[in-house]
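Page 47, continued from p. 46.
Same chain as before, 878 aa.
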Amino acid sequence: MILIKIKEMAARYPDKIAIRMKADDRYQQYTYRDLIRSIASVTRSLSESGINKGDRVGLLSENRPEWMIAYLAVVSCGAVIVPLDAQLTAKEVTVLLANSGAKAVFVSADSRQKLPLSEPLVVISFDPGDGIPFSRMVTSYPDAALPPAHAANDLAALLYTSGTTGDPKGVMLSHSNLASDLASVIKLNIIVHGDNLLCLLPLHHTYPAMACMLLPLALGGQVTILNSLKGPDILACMQEAGVTAMVGVPQLFTALRNAIFDGISKKPGLVRALVKLFIALNRLLRKKTGLNVGRSLFGTVHAKFGPKFRLFASGGARLDPDVYRDMTDLGFTVIEGYGLTETSPVSTFNPFSKQKAGSIGIPIPDVEVRIVNPDEHGMGEIAIRGPNVMLGYYKKPQETAEVLRDGWFFTGDLGYCDKDGYFFITGRSKEMIVLSTGKKIFPDELEKFYKQISSIKEICLIQGERGIEAAVVPDFDYLKKMNLSNSRETIAFEIEDLAKDLPPYKRITGLKIFKDPLPATRLGKLKRSQVRDMYLKSGERAEKPVTVVDSDLLSTPVAKKFLACLEPFSAKKNIAPDDNLELDLGLDSLTRVELVVSIEKSFDISLPESFGSELFTVKDAVLRLQELLASGPLKAGERVRMSWAEILAQEPGAEARESIKLEFGPIIQAIRYMVLLLLKVVMKVYGRLSATGIENLPEKGPFIIAPNHLSLADAPSIAAALSWKTSSQAFSLGATEYFGGPVLSKISRIFQVIPVDMETRLYNALQLSAFVLHRGKILLVFPEGSRSRDGSIKEFKKGVGIISKELNIPIVPVAISGTYAMLPSGSLFPKPSKIMVSFGKPVHPGGRDYEEIVKTLYGDVVKMLEGQKSEARSQNPD
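Result:
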C-alpha cells in the first residue's frame, strides 16, 4: 500500500530528487526513478537470497539512503523489517536478533562488528567488506517490478522499544497499521509535494521513519539526510539543500531556542528592547488576526534556516510550552504531534488553525482518543483506538493483554481533555512518584521547574526514603565561567533557594551529582530505571581508559609533582586526568585550601587567588600549573602537606590585612556605638528580643561565637544581645555577595566584617580569622556556611572546628529562633516576630578532632533550639 504511493510518485516525477544525503562536502542523491528501481531490484535480490514472506530481516545502520531502500524493499517482498539502533552494544544486538528470529541483516561498516559470530545470518553490507554487497543487489535486476501489495494484516515491522539487554519487547506493526497512519497524517496537510524534509533523527524509531521517510516519499517530496546535530552543520545543510521542514525532538528545539535568545541577549540594550517590542507585537497579531509578521520582523534569524524554510515538527516527547511560545513569537510555525511506537506512531495533532501551547492536540482522522477512569480533576490514563494500533507485543501475550483491552490501547500516559477536545499529558503512570503521604508527583513537571537553575544541565527525580531525590549533572561550563568549583554545594543551595515556596513534599530531600550525561534514549527521553539504578549504586565509578595524550601529560615533571601534592588529600588510587577534584577525588572547599598551600610550598610559587576555584579536573590543574611555571625552571622539592596549624599561623597578605581594622578613632567608635544602640532598640521593640545564657560568654577573647543561621537578621540579633564591651571586640564572617564592592567593603571594615568568598578567597578569610583571634578578638561564625532555606538547621561544616582546635580556643554555641519568620530568604522587608537567642556553655577543643568538635557544637545548638520551642509552647499553649 505504501509502496503503491511511492510508485505513483515515481511515475509522475521520475527525475525529481527523492533522497539526498550530505556526507562531508558532497551530496549523494537518488531520483524517484532511481529509488523505485533500487527498491524493486533489492526486493528481487532478497527473494533470490532465500528471504521469503514472513522472514525477519534486521536493519542495523546509521541513517543513509540505503537504509530507506532496504526498509522499503523488505516490506515490499513481504518479509518483516526489524530496525535496530546502530548505537546498541554487540550484546544487545545479539539479544534482539535472536529474539526476532532474524534470517538476514543489513549492516554498515561501523555496525558490522556488532553482529554475533555464531548466528547463521545472511549479512548484506552497505559498504565494501564481508557479506553480500548491497550495491550489487541494487543493480542486479534493473527491470524488476514491485510485487503486488500484501494482505493488510500481515506483519510488516517488528520494533523493539525497551528491555534490550534482558527482556526484549517487540512491537508488531502490520501493513495496515502503517498505511492507515500514513493516510491519516496525509489528510492533515502538514507536508505537501514541494516540501524538503531534513532528517536528523535515527530512522529506527517509528516517528522519524513515518515523518522523514514514508510521509514525504508518499507525497513526492524530498528527504535530506544529515548525520550531525551540530548547529553550524544543520544550518549549512538547510541553506544548501533548500530545506522547508525540520522534524525533531523537544531537546533539539530547546537548544535552537536557547541559541537564538542567547544571541539576542548579547545585543545592545536598544536592540534588546526593540526585539521585546516586536515579539509582543507579533504575538498579539497572531493571536487576534492569525497574521504572522515574524519573518519580516526577525528576518536575520529566519534567514539562518534558509530561504525556503517554513515548518518545525516536534514529536517523541512533550514540547515545553515556553519553547513553543518563544519560537512562534519569533514567527516560526511549530507543530506538535503525539503517539507511540504501538500506534504507528501518530495519534494526535495540534492543528495549524488553532494551536494550544502545551497540548498534544486532537485525534488525527480515523483515530479515537479518550481519558479512562478520570478523577475529580478529569485526569486519567490516555487510551487510543483505531487502525493504527499495533497487533501486539511479539511473543508476549500477557503484556499484550494488559495494554490492549476491548479494542483500546492503554498508553500508560496520564492526562486530561479540555472543553475544546484538546488533550494534555501530565506524566507517565509508571513514572509517577507516590510518596508515603499519598501525594502524587509527576517528575517531568517538577524537573522542568528545577531546570531553571543555571548550574543544572540535567536532572532526574527519583523516589527516595525521605521523599524525592535528584540525580543531577552540573553545567560545568557555567560553573567554570562563574568561578564556582564546588558544584554540589552550589546546586544544593540554589535548589533550596528556588524551592522555598513549594509545598514540602515537592522539595528535594536528597541530591547526588554525576559528571557524565544521564542515560537517555536517542530521542532524548530519560531512562529513569537506569538513572535510579545508577543513583543507588553511585560511588561505584568504573575506571575510564586514559588516552595516550593524557597519559603523556601525567608523566610530565609538573604533573608528577602535582600528583604528589594531591595524593594525601584523596583516597582514590590510579588518579586519571579527567578525574573531577570534587566528585571523583572528594575535595571540598577546605581541602582545596590545603592543596593550594601545599602546591605553593612544594613548587615555591605564589598562586593566584582564583587558582583553587578555576580548576575542575586533574588535567585542568596540571595545565594551569604548566602555564604558570612556563616562565621559569621547576624547583626540585619533596611532597609537602601543610598542616592547618601552619596555614593559620601564616600572616595574611598586606592586601588582606587592609580589608579589616583592629582599632578605631573616637568618631568611628561613636558611630558604631550609636548603631548598636539603634539595633538594640529595634530588636527589643520590633523583634521582642530575649537573650539567655549571656553569663556563659568568656570575659574576654579570644573565643568563637557559633550560631545557627536562619536569616540576614541573625547577625544584628546577636549584636543586639551582646554588651558593648563584647560587641566592640567581635569580628564576623560575611559573604562577599553582601560585603564586597568599593562601598560595602568600607562599611564592612567599620563594622568588623571579614569578607568570605568560598571559592576564591577562603584561604584569606581563614588566615584573617586566625589573625584577629591571635590578637585577643572575638569571631562570629555561622558554621552552616549559608542561610537555611526552610527554617531548619543544616549540617555544620568543619571549618569552625579547625580554627578552634589549631588555635586552642573555645566555641560558644548559640541558638537563634524567630529570625526566619522575621526575614526569610527572598524577603526584602522584615516582619514583627519574637526572637530568642540562647548562649550555651563554651565547647573546648581538648583532645577532640575537627569533626568531634563540630558534632558536639551542633548537638548543643539543637538542644537549645528544642528548649526554645518548649518555652514558646508554654508561653503560647494555644
